[in-house]
Amino acid sequence: MSKRSLLSILVTLLLLSTAAAAEVLRINGSTTVNAVVVEAAEILRTKKGMQIEVDTQGGSTGGISALADGRVQIGMISRPVTDEDKTKYPKIQFHPIAIGEDAVAIIVSRDVWDGGVKALTRAQAQQIYESKVKNWKELGGPDQRIVFFNKEPGRGTWEVFVHWLYGDAKKAPSVSFPEVGANEEARTKVASTRGALSQLSSSWVDNKKTFALGIKGDQGQVVRPDPAHIADRSYPLSRTLSVVTNGEPQGAAKVMVDFLLSPEGQALVRKHGYLALADLHGKGKP
After folding, report:
1. CA proximity to 52, closest of 31, 73, 68
2. Beta strands 119-120; 214-216: pairing state
3. Has residue 286 been placed in a domain?
4. pLDDT band at 11, cuts 50/70/90?
5. Which of 63, 147, 213, 249 is the 20 to 30 A CA-CA neighbour of 196?
6. What would the DSSP string read from start to end of 174-219?
7. Which range marks the domain in which residue 25 is found?
């Protein structure tokens, strides 16, 4: 092989390597999944020199929209990809990849918890959502007005909650409660407001200023959002945490997905209070 040919090959390889290093992996979506992905991104930046941008604009629905518009290579979702998503974006081959399991908790402020409200039935939650019940004393709690901080429609947490209430997010009535976005905002609002209630990822409940209510079934049994009930899905607001790509992940997106599914990535899932995939199958630590 001539020196010119060898030099040409080396230059080509250098250009390809530079292009790969310059590729920016853009990710958007669920604030619940974000906690894991942000830390994974930091590790990949350090270990592989990857350029990664992570955002949570619009929650799960925003992540799906950004993926469909080609603005990101990975969407983060804490609710399933729906038939409506597929109809709205018919050219997109949604490929969700589960990374862990979580649950939506119905959380209340300390005064409500200390006042005796420890669980709600689905009917009671509906009555609160539809403003048919406006004071906690109607539910056996303190004489305190219910202050509902509703998750923004489109957020995965909101969609899981209203799907449980009505069987379909489209059937949820229009309400005028103050809205909260990210998990931190929801927790802070409830913690600082008497009579407060909201929907929140169960891993964000601190059991100091915010408390997760159990769900009371028809026979009076109460199921709490604890790891065992989330793992076996007996808690009705359990949900899968996923990242989603357009078709099989490629390039930098595949590197991220592979990392999230690796033992190191699954350890991050547990670190942030979620169940890893192996926990759902009784396999212990991956």
Report:
1. 73
2. parallel
3. no
4. very low
5. 63
6. P----EE-SHHHHHHHHHTSTTEEEEEEGGG--SSSEEEPEEE-TT
7. 3-102+241-281
Identify whether residues 125 and 173 lie together within a single domain.
Answer: yes
Q: Nearest 5°: phi and psi at 268?
A: -65, -40
For residues 76 and 243, is the Cβ–Cβ distance under 8 A?
yes
Judgement on whether residues 90 and 145 belong to the same structural domain of the protein = no
Q: Per-residue pLDDT averaged across 28-56, rounded?
A: 96
Question: What CATH number does the domain containing 39 carry?
Answer: 3.40.190.10
HSE (side-chain half, CA atoms, 13 Å) at 224: 9
Q: Are 211 and 117 in contact (CB under 8 A)?
A: no
Supply 12's token pair.
Answer: 């080509």
* Structure tokens given for 25: 């992996």
Could you tell me if 263 and 221 lie in one domain?
no
Structural domain total, the chain:
2
Cα(204)–Cα(104) distance, integer angstroms: 10
pLDDT at position 22: 62
C-alpha span between 188 and 191 (Å, rounded): 5
Q: Do residues 95 and 242 touch, judged by C-beta distance below 8 A?
A: no
Give 132-161 pLDDT, tens digit per residue.
999 999 999 999 999 999 998 888 999 999
pLDDT for the residue numbered 169: 86
